[in-house]
Amino acid sequence: MAKKFDFKSVATWETGELESQPGPSGIRKRTATSFDECAKLLNMRQLMMIKNEQIDYLTIEERKVLYTACHVVPTVDPSYVYNLITNKSMSSVETIVEHLFGYGYPTIKQRVRRECMELRRKAFLCEDGQTFDFVQFLAIYPNPEIFFEEKRKTDEIYMKHAMAFLSRKFEQYDVKFIRKLFINSNKQLLPAYRILKKHAEAFAKSKNAPHFVTNAHVKVKFRRLSDSGKIPDYPDSLDELFFREAQFCLYEEEILNYKVNCAAKRKEALEHAERNSLLKECIICCEDCHLEEDMVKCSKGDHEFCKNCVKQHTEAQIGDGMNRISCMDPSCTDGHFETSSIQNIISPALFRLFILHCLRDEILTSNIGNIEFCPFCDFPASFGNSEDRTLVCLNAVCQKESCRKCQKESHIPLRCEEVQEDVDFETKKRKFIEERMSEAVIRKCPTCDKKITKETGCNKMTCPCGTFFCYVCNVALPKENPYEHFSNVRGRCRQDTSLEQLHEMAAKRAGLEALRLFNEHNPESIDVKAPNINELAGLKKKTKPATTKE
């Protein structure tokens, strides 16, 4: 039986009465008395989803009910509320809210993730109208026939993907038979697909009965309705390795032919270049057997390097959070590699991360108002209402809701200080001290606040935004002669110092200060055992966060 929902405790939405009783965080419950006000109550993500529904079929009153119900239960998928109004004939907000809280409901997060996964599946299987990219595939898997034929262990998610894929590609075969064949093929997609494809092609050419059992004589729609023959759905999570293997299954012959043709053309081009002394040399790896198309030039056009060296350099710089891939020639201070040059060199996932870095820095430097970033994935979000306390991440992979004040997961209706952590004082003290010590070995750019930690080199640091600053005192340095700041005179910052000693001293000072502050704000914890700060300081120099090289 459905649980009765106390609608009066929320608000009298339909009559427009406003309950003025504040919640734990002083949030007043809001109501709406007009259609426009109802629409304004919803966040951008809810409005975008509602626009996709057939709103024109709803009356003004029904639209008001839809908007209001979605505001009362902000996590519900608007399309589910739409169906309740149109199919279940629920005409009041109270009835809908009681149904949602009584029987449960699909959420926006589930819908976004489901739609995102479906789009990615279609893209992998080229069901979105796009053509298969042989170049990108072979860049990731240069020898796919060796990689996918090698025996390996597979998990339950992989098996679910395989059963969903094979059952759709070979609908004439019984699902139980496909499962048995897949298990006998070492639970790997490629050998199972090859067997089914070979038999299906032979059976299509022959009028004789097949040599293993199928239910081809049974109509597909009836087979799908039976429990034994129901085509399994794809799992909610997406296994990218599986879909790469599925791509190889679908385009195996074309991929291998393309690979052979490319190898023949390259061999011919190398012979021609060698005869005419046209081979290029990379100054990084010192190999002199590269073709013109193997080389990548920096933006200045004066220096070029082989794709393999550029790839390794780009991966390292993106890992350091750079939004500008600098030229590898030490004398080229202003040169960099264009985005179009590196797009086909690195993996699509890494390129997406690079674009996200660029987007973030572009937003920060352009001073766009009402923009904040998800603390969990750095995805940007726009705020039309500055009073909103929760940031809802629109990144389909993340989708986390965080508090804009404390940057932790949303804890509405509690205030930040009202959130009680279920840990003892000893754990809280250790955590507080460790966090402050970790922050002490990280420097922030004085211009853009980007976090940077040095790996090697001198104390003149260069931020991706172009700012020079001192790693010792964190002061911005002049563009003309940044090294003028350093001196061996006592009291001045040295250009070269022991990195381990510098980090250890900074961590120790921060640890002692953190211990003092914690005991000052928590007098009852003075007698609680404190961690050994000297040992922690020695640890911090070995377990550093993401770094940026000079």
TrEMBL record:
Keyword Ligase: no
Annotated InterPro entries: BRcat_RBR_RNF216, IBR_dom, LUBAC_E3_Ligases, Rcat_RBR_RNF216, TRIAD_supradom, Znf_RING/FYVE/PHD
Keyword Transferase appears in the UniProt entry: yes
Annotated GO MF terms: transferase activity; zinc ion binding
Pathway this chain belongs to: Protein modification; protein ubiquitination
UniProt protein name: RING-type domain-containing protein
Organism: Cercopithifilaria johnstoni
UniProt keyword annotations, A-Z: Metal-binding, Repeat, Transferase, Ubl conjugation pathway, Zinc, Zinc-finger
Pfam family, one: Rcat_RNF216
Gene3D superfamilies: 1.20.120.1750, Zinc/RING finger domain, C3HC4 (zinc finger)
Family annotation (SMART domains): IBR
Residue span(s) of domain RING-type: 278-497
